[in-house]
Amino acid sequence: MTKIKPAEPVDVDAVFKKRVLIKEAIRCSGIEAVKMYIQAGKPMASWRDGKVYMIPPEELKTMLAAAENADQATS
């Protein structure tokens, strides 16, 4: 599990004005969650075609690699 490091005080009003920071925090937490499921070897629940779909760890690895490649392409 990822250890949370104490952070410097944050100006919450400034963060909410910069929605990019919020989107980035949500994206990073999602990536960390996927990594935890992969490490545990467990499927992750998702919603597909109106039904709950359990994404197997192998598919999660593929999705994570695609997301990381997309990040590298945009930076």
Please supply descriptive tags for the structure shown above.
elongated; 75 residues; alpha+beta
Task: Provide a brief overview of the structure.
61% of the residues lie in helices and 13% in strands. It is an alpha+beta fold and 75 residues long. It starts with 11 loop residues before the first helix and ends with a helix.
Uncertain runs = none
Mean pLDDT: 87
Task: Tell me the number of helical segments per DSSP (H or I, 4 or more residues long).
Answer: 3
Number of strands: 2
Name the structural class: alpha+beta
What oligomerization state is this entry in? single chain
Strand content: 5-15%
Distance, first to last CA: 27 Å
What pattern of helices and strands is seen along the backbone?
HHEEH
Radius of gyration: 15 Å
Layout of helices and strands:
Layout: H1 12-17, H2 19-40, E1 44-48, E2 51-55, H3 57-74
Antiparallel strand pairs: 1-2
Helix pairs in contact: 2-3
